[in-house]
Amino acid sequence: MQRKNAFVFDLDGTINHAAPLPQGLPIRGRTSNSFIDRRVIDLLLELAILTDLYVATGRSQTTVQDFKAHFKAVGLPIAGWILEHGTRAEGCPAWNKKVLAGIDLEDIHARAGRLIQEKGYGIDTEYYREVHQSILLYSGRDQDESESFLSRLSGTLNNRFRTITGSRKIVIIPKRGDKYAAFQTVFGETHSIICAAGDMPDDLTLLRHAAFPLTLRSASPLVQRYVEERGGFVAEQKGHEGTVAMLRAALDQLKKKRPMLSMLSMLPVPGPRLPVEEIECFRPSRRRLLDRLFQDTRFPEQEPDREALEQAGRQLHAGRGIIIEVRMRDWGGEAKSLCNLLKAMVLFIPYAHWRLVFRQERLGKENLKNFEAITSRLHDICALPEGGCRFSAPGVPQSPKERGASSITVLMYDHPDDMAPWYDYAVTRPVLRHPEDNGTWFVNPMFMKISSGDNLPDKNRELTSLQFAGPKVMMAANIVDDTDIQVAVQGFERLSETVDALIIAPRVVTNPQRNRKIKEATAHIGKKLSFLSQLTLTDRPQILFVDTYGDLAQLYAHCCITYLGGGFDTRKRGFDPMESLSAQVPVILGPIYNFNRIAVDSLKDTGWVHILEQEGRAVEDFVRLAQGLLKQKPPVHELQRMLQKRAWDPLRVAGELLGDLVATR
Hints:
This protein is α/β, with parallel strands linked by helices. It folds into four domains: 4-97 and 177-278, 3-Layer(aba) Sandwich (Rossmann fold); 102-174, Hypothetical Protein Ta0175, Chain: A, domain 2 (Alpha-Beta Complex); 306-452 and 647-664, Rossmann fold (3-Layer(aba) Sandwich), CATH 3.40.50; 473-646, Rossmann fold, CATH 3.40.50. Helices cover 36% and strands 17% of the residues. It has 25 helices and 26 strands. Helix 5 packs across helix 11 (284-296), helix 13 crosses helix 25 (649-664) and helix 18 packs across helix 23 (618-631).
């Protein structure tokens, strides 16, 4: 069935504005009215002749009544109403029920009220309470305070909600509720989004899936940048004039495309991934909160009491009968953190058994196909003193049998989703007791990764004697997306007067689409790829493609500078710079570095780590920073000082865990 076309638009800030209009149509607000320009109504009437109109707003059934009255008075047909940030669709109770399944908003509201009273937050929870059915809308006085409130409420929200903070409002929205998801579920079988207009990050999913997205200069800068990136329309004017210009542009597009059988050919759908800042844990106000948490936290520096650790080990009979359960997301970078913790713990409880628990959906993947995938990475620490394997891994094929209940549980996560709702609570500390579950501890893998640069064995390949086209070699590691490829290849080309060769290492060497893009990018600058698996010691590659696993650490010995990929990808959240830093090679990376924020924050003011803030300027900024680093390498003592401070972290963690085991023995 040929689907019809739909124009989906937001209301406040997109259609109506606070600027007074003598002849405008008034919309009542909490403290003041806003207005719809009558020219906007005329344009919407013209658009309704060409396409069906849908409203997608954060307003509720109650607060949208002024719009409905004005639209009805002029005969403007609205085909559907999506309300409360996508949690409700008028006339579709099934969607409303699905969004709220398993959620008790009254309980969450009560808990929020108690927290506000306890902490003295200046937040009003009651003004909007009666008019919204599917979300919680509160009135705040300061965005930073709002983020602090939401952080403390995270245990209640428990990763089931997304939130919006503004200068005065706090919105708590069930995660299943989204404007585009609501449209697609309720109207998607009959309609496709030909145009979408919005002004706030909450509208981005609609704008991403529209054939022609539109916004205006008074919109969020984030929305403006995204619409420009997509090739949509951004009105030069703000407010009422911007809305008029925006709707005229939509009208022009629809008139141009009307003769076509399908109008969904204006721009690629869906558009590029959403901006970093749209993701809740990366929005500016949220990042400011995390910055403050890290700034206010004093990382431990005192050397652990080794005698006390040895005494605890004796009290625990060297770990006999103890089972330590470690929960992890996957078996990639986590192996380094676990290995460093193990090396500290087995000094005192060598007979303890370790149960490794991975997220269910990770089992059976490439790095967890069978138990050998675990033992091959832990090597000499696998065996117990009397023989037998130290580890088991439920669900992993060929794992040894389970031995009984856990004596203590270690949560070794660093992803916000895995740590929810305790990410803010634990992310700045090496080890922390769980506030609610006895015998459960957060162990921060970011600290564990820093403590040793040689914590995992490499394959038995001698790569340090390789020769390149010249002595100055640039590393581009963990390349995951188009921006990474551009920085690696174009950056290398622009540095050709000072850099002789490039090592480019994709995150996954078997990804054919990414590998093809890398090959095309190098061919575009007139260069040919050499492959590490085919290299001989007599070759002198100018661009070396790392198509093997386990060899990267040795290759850093050849390098003078590193670009670390993944820093513009919210799914990857950056990667660990420690391999490069351990080889005393400075690192340049993108703005997302949650994968090892401890190392980045500790070194970003020393010259050893530099951050590219803007994706659109990534290549230019990389070249500028690289040129400075190539002229003058940062002082080595700054790097050594950080490494020395963190060298004792595994023993510090061991002290806390052993102390808890002794106390509960």
